[in-house]
Design brief:
Elements: H1 3-22, H2 31-52, H3 87-109, H4 114-119, H5 121-126, H6 128-139, H7 144-158, H8 164-170, H9 178-189, H10 217-224, H11 226-231, H12 236-239
């Protein structure tokens, strides 16, 4: 995968994370958590736009036309395929996956690609609140299942030891490779990852995941503006 492909994956995942956060803006355990969910959702949706805007300056935009019709064309993790069914899923995403994306952004900012160094630096400051919120709820204790799954998908998303991320690190485009990214994530959340054996033979290097599937149709329709088009007033041509 090229650096552009990795940036697209960060963007797609941040877009989906922002949408899933927003779905909990009136369902969280407290008013403060409601407000945090809404604010973090807006942050990540905004970050995704910045990341998409980096693709053209990088010289290669990997987006294809089928992104408008095929949910499986998005480079998002399985964790976002369906709406979260519990607050534990929210917390695990907030503490582990959100922080994993931030760690990758940090690797971009500290790499040698100027457009990423310049445009993504502010993102690290804005993500600090996300990290503090996720860590606080993680310390309060959540179910093991969602947490282990978030860890698994984060490590798979970083890529295999000899994969593209390792290559980009060797070229200096990223300041960290897979092992360093995992260690940095563990350092940030102040806990070790569970023992995980990734099936790299089944890993999709474009979507950065081992599990097939795609985002649910309702969410994909919202992403692509299909629902808005369906309910929009008819054009003059159609009315005629």
């Amino acid at each position: 995968m090229s650096l552009s492909g990795l940036v697209l994956s960060i963007a797609d995942n941040k877009q989906m994370l922002g949408l899933r956060y927003a779905e909990w803006a009136t369902r969280a355990p407290s008013l403060e958590a409601d407000i945090a969910a809404a604010a973090m959702g807006l942050d990540d949706l905004g970050h995704s736009r910045v990341l998409y805007g980096c693709l053209d300056p990088l010289g290669e935009d990997p987006r294809t036309a089928n992104r408008e019709t095929d949910p499986a064309s998005l480079s998002a993790l399985p964790y976002f395929d369906e709406p979260w069914s519990s607050w534990a899923h929210f917390v695990a995403a907030n503490a582990i996956l959100d922080t994993a994306f931030t760690v990758m952004v940090e690797a971009c900012v500290n790499g040698k690609v100027e457009v990423l160094r310049h445009r993504l630096r502010k993102m690290l400051t804005e993500e600090r609140y996300h990290f503090l919120h996720g860590r606080s709820w993680l310390r309060s204790g959540i179910e093991k299942g969602p947490l282990d799954e978030a860890w698994k998908q984060a490590i798979e998303w970083f890529g295999p030891p000899d994969g593209d991320t390792a290559g980009l690190h060797k070229e200096g485009k990223l300041s960290m490779g897979p092992a360093e990214l995992k260690a940095r994530l563990e350092e940030r959340v102040e806990t070790k990852a569970p023992a995980i054996k990734a099936d790299w033979n089944g890993w999709d290097p474009i979507r950065r995941r081992t599990r097939p599937g795609a985002v649910d149709d309702l969410t994909f329709g919202m992403l692509r503006g299909l629902e808005e088009k369906r309910f929009a007033p008819a054009t003059t041509e159609k009315q005629a």
